[in-house]
Amino acid sequence: MSLLDEILVYNERFVEEEEYEKYKAGKLPEKRMVVLSCMDTRLVELLPKSMNFKNGDAKVIKTAGAVVSHPFGSAMRSIMVAVYELNADEVFVVGHHDCGMSSINSDKMIGKMKDRGITEETIETVENSGIHLANWLRGFDSVVESVKNSVEIIRNHPLLPPNIPVHGLVISPETGKLDKVVDGYEFLK
Prior knowledge:
By secondary structure, the chain is an alpha/beta fold. It has one domain: Beta-carbonic Anhydrase, Chain A. It has seven helices and five strands. The chain has helices at residues 3-16, 43-50, 74-84, 106-115, 120-128, 133-137, 143-155, and strands at 33-38, 58-63, 90-96, 166-171, 178-182. The protein has a five-stranded mixed sheet, sandwiched between helices. The longest helix has 14 residues, at 3-16. The chain is globular, with a radius of gyration of 19 Å.
């Protein structure tokens, strides 16, 4: 059975048995927060539990490394939608220790692209369009510095209201312990 078929078979039972009832929530975040976190599989359940939020409490955006790579990219757009349309009043950027983005080698990733059928011509076309793949794919050396950088991009965005605190945290994917990197309230004083 394919993964898709497995999911659909499970989903049919999930709906028939009304398992969805325990997850019902409104579309506006009860805790009026938006969380930008890493897509790491270890954080799927650990992050909400460690931050004491449940389904319906927060808007959660996931990117590789909890990185805002461009002030007008999709992660930032999602934050703006959460603030202006979905009543979020605080932003939390949550990176994590042992992040795969800290060991990304963009040259090796480009090699893997080629191994999986992406042609040199396609890579050259992308590069010639103004996107430097090695920069676009690069990771970071320090999760703390990466979180600080994403917080800065968000906090200094020209379209973000000045009264929105933007916090930075780093979570342990082993224990869920949160370390404060940036207290967004300090910038509101």
